[in-house]
Specification:
Oligomer: heterodimer
Order of helices and strands of chain A: HEEEEEEEHEE
Radius of gyration of chain A: 22 Å
Distance between the termini of chain B: 108 Å
Helix content of chain A: 10-25%
CATH topology of chain A: Immunoglobulin-like
Number of domains of chain A: 1
Radius of gyration of chain B: 33 Å
Largest sheet of chain A: 5 strands, mixed
Number of helices of chain B: 3
Largest interface: A-B, 18 and 19 residues
Largest sheet of chain B: 5 strands, antiparallel
Strand order of the largest sheet of chain A: 2-3-9-8-5
Shape of chain B: elongated
């Protein structure tokens, strides 16, 4: 009986340790695991001012097909010294990197000027109508707009996103 | 049968009692024996045979010492009662203190609820030059006095030391040295109120005053003040603007209705902050301190010429257009139409 219990405990332990050894994913040049995930997209885009508070109003609009991320910001927000936070899908990484210390970045080149139409804004937040109109016309994107590339977990897929900032009208 | 049983239990009980009594007695005698050995009182350390003293700085050690502010010490002195009593105490500061430098004539003890209870032991202290002295008026052989040193303007950027000393009726004296303490180069002005359209012109260039607020009527009456204005404060009821600071050259679109006084040209640099809660600026809340070093190492890179949406507990780093002064403005409160601010300023 006692022997049986030992076997019952020992065998799964052995199996676990074997499988653990086999799970060794290779590591890339940044010391990050190269996994087998092929997803490659931006999931959120946040901008912090020098006071470490967000300047965004409403949610950022991200079009993963057109590879565009738009942040709508408060009227009068200065854009030359912002700390961007870009959320990615699992295991993906960003290039160029945003520094973890002193990650201040000049985003003034990403500012998009567009004629607003009726229905573009609803109680201070941008509507999908506005977001879709911006994305539909890539030729109007500022040439100086910030671009970051997302690299998938398996490091085989790379997608370059354009990051735009739209200042809301005075609220 | 029944009686026999009762008898036997009684006997057992008596046996028990006897044994317990013996135990208690033995223990008691043992403890008396031990106690008798401890009869002599042993002094820890050497006995005090002369006047002795001690001192602590009660002001937080890492708080910057700013001109106009107090540094507080507690000076303790005592001698054995049969040797005499305390007669006088004095402090010599290496730089004479400003008005208000004094000894508190009370000695304090703390009651059961933790409240300091004063007991008057001396006459009012007198300060002449760098020496502050006090005469004891009661027959006491032990006392702790509090000494308040008001940092003078001329001590800025220097180090300061204190020599405490005490005299007893038997002629003995004792001395205790404290310091050196670094005196900050900063100026500090607290709880200044700004109001939209009236007290709205801020200057950081005034000598020994961290911030000077000029009102609209003062500037209208004396246009030469315009060159001293570094920032214009304005309030707008729009949620995107609210409380704003504006330097010359700030975009007109972001300051609707704000008219600069003619000739206003100071290119002041501003960096918005939030949650940098200095203890001295926030009227002794929180536990952070902005010190000289912060101003020295501050990078004004990416600074703006305007700030919008200032909130309570927010603030701004400021550098005057000529780069001679840097300041930190802390917002104490931000009701509609006005601000209460406290400022630390550093001359570069």
């Amino acid at each position: 009986m006692k022997k049986n219990i030992y076997f019952i405990i020992l065998i799964p332990l052995l199996l676990f340790s074997i499988s653990a050894c086999n799970n060794d994913f290779p590591i890339d040049e940044d010391g990050l695991l190269i996994t087998d995930r092929a997803e490659c997209y931006v999931s959120n885009f946040e901008l912090l001012d020098t006071d470490h508070q967000t300047i965004r109003v409403g949610n950022s609009y991200i079009d993963t097909l057109a590879q565009v991320a738009i942040a709508y910001v408060r009227f009068g927000s200065p854009l030359n010294k912002l700390w961007p936070q870009i959320s990615l899908c699992e295991d993906a990484k960003l290039t160029p990197k945003i520094a973890t210390v002193n990650g201040w970045t000049d985003f003034s080149g990403s500012k998009m000027t567009i004629e607003f139409q009726a229905g573009d804004w609803s109680s201070g937040n941008a509507t999908t109508q506005l977001s879709e109109r911006i994305v539909a016309n890539p030729s109007a994107f500022p040439t100086t707009a910030k671009k970051y590339t997302v690299i998938s977990g398996n490091r085989k897929i790379k997608k370059e996103y354009t990051f735009l900032i739209v200042e809301r009208p005075l609220q | 049968m029944n009686r026999a049983y009762i008898n036997s239990t009684r006997m057992k009980k008596d046996n028990h009692m006897n044994r317990r009594l013996t135990y208690i007695l033995t223990l008691l005698s043992l403890s008396f024996l031990l106690g008798s050995c401890d009869d002599e009182i042993v002094l820890i350390g050497e006995s005090v045979t002369k006047l002795s003293n001690d001192c602590i700085k009660r002001t937080l050690p890492y708080a910057p010492n700013i001109a106009g502010e107090e540094i507080e010490f507690a000076y303790a002195m005592a001698l054995p009662a049969d040797l005499g009593k305390l007669t006088s105490a004095q402090v010599v500061a290496s730089i004479p203190g400003a008005d208000g430098t004094r000894f508190d004539p009370n000695s304090y003890h703390t009651n059961a609820s933790g409240v300091d209870i004063p007991v008057r032991v001396a006459s009012e202290s007198t300060t002449s030059g760098s020496t502050t002295s006090i005469q004891f008026t009661v027959d006491t052989c032990a006392s702790t006095l509090r000494y308040y040193y008001v940092v003078p303007e001329q001590a800025k950027g220097q180090e300061i030391t204190f020599t405490f000393s005490v005299k007893a009726s038997n002629g003995q004296t004792a001395e205790y040295k404290m310091g050196p303490y670094k005196i900050s180069k900063m100026d500090m002005t607290r709880n200044v109120t700004l109001s939209n359209g009236a007290n709205c012109y801020l200057s950081f260039q005034e000598e020994s005053q961290a911030v000077k607020v000029y009102s609209a009527s003062e500037v209208a009456a004396n246009p030469s003040l315009v060159s001293k204005i570094d920032i214009v404060y304005a309030y707008n009821s729009n949620a995107d603007l609210t409380h704003g600071f504006f330097a010359a050259g700030s975009p007109e679109a972001y300051r609707p209705g704000v008219v600069f006084p003619s000739g206003f040209s100071n290119q002041t640099k501003l960096i918005k902050e939030y949650g940098l809660r200095d203890r001295q600026l926030s009227n002794l809340q929180y536990s952070h301190f902005i010190d000289d070093l912060d101003f020295q190492e501050l990078s004004m890179e990416g600074a703006q010429n305007y700030i919008l949406v200032l909130k309570e507990e927010g603030g701004a780093w400021i550098e005057t257009g000529d780069g001679r002064y840097r300041a930190f403005v802390f917002v104490n409160s931000a009701p509609a139409n006005g601000l209460t601010i406290s400022v630390k300023r550093y001359k570069m």
